[in-house]
Sequence to fold (351 residues):
Amino acid sequence: MTHPARYWHREGERIVCTACPRLCTMSEGQHGFCYVRKHEDGRLVSLAYGKPNAVAVDPIEKKPLWHFLPGTTILSMGTAGCNLGCRFCQNWDLSKAKSHHKRALELAPEDVPALARREGAASVAFTYNDPTIYPEYVIDAARAARAAGVAAVGVTAGYISDAARADMYPELDALNIDLKGFSERFYHKLTFSHLQPVLETIEWSVKRGLWVELTTLVIPGHNDDPEELRAQFRWIAEHVGPDVPLHLTAFHPDYKLQDVERTPPETLIRARDEARGFGLRFVYTGNIWDRVGSVTACPGCDLPLIERRWHAVAANRVKADGTCPGCARQIPGVFDARSQSTSGGRRYHLL
Ligand code: SF4
Fold:
């Protein structure tokens, strides 16, 4: 069963998908680059609607979202396919798969909040691959979730068209957007996409008032040039401000980049300090052991507010109204779910 897709127009006998800047043109029977949108019977359909191919319960810290309902669990789902072609993809078994080759859970949008509640999750995430390729399902499922008091989160590369973004993002409570590098060369050669639309998405989302955290997977020899990283930190400070958390995470060899070494911890620690030097207040490191890079400290009085051990929250001193108990400064983020069940950093698969 397919589902009618939005974001397309006809060009003669062919259909152009406008969900992302790739603008795939499809003759009858053809799929787009992401392989879950198809020209079928003269219209564009989604093969992914209501059929996630991966469903798991994660600590929300794993998304990573560190200023949004810290310590809670999140029902996470993704489909096959992707609109990017990252050579370093860490979910390539999903992103490079065809949806009909993978098992899927039949999960209507209205059933999403009940599943989240059953698993003790405070929120639901569209993640693993990129929700840009199934906006119709994200919109309907996020609406159902929020109506039932379950928050909705998107984890994305932000390579999305203006129209799909304007419809989908306001349905979400929080976003983690990858800023995969800071050069067009990197985006073009290693992700088969472009940098500028991603920067526009980040700026648009923050200015729209959405809760946004950014992630950069630092890959030795590809996007770890100190000058390039400094340009990125400067851009973040100037364009979206110092309160947007930035996660600098370590690469491990995967997919087509098997010959690249793991990111040395010193690279991330140096980058973390440089980013803070540009005034960014919440810079974290991931996939390495780094106590400083895993603590949220108050920018006002330096009190350690949230301490983490990998994906588990070890201590959370932020008050329920989001303020620091030491100096009453408001900490940016969403911290009001203290009564929700905590994850303890556990993860398990439902599919
Ligand atoms: S969403 Fe998929 S089909 Fe549509 S333009 Fe992007 S890659 Fe192509």
User: Anything to note?
Assistant: The chain has a mean pLDDT of 95.
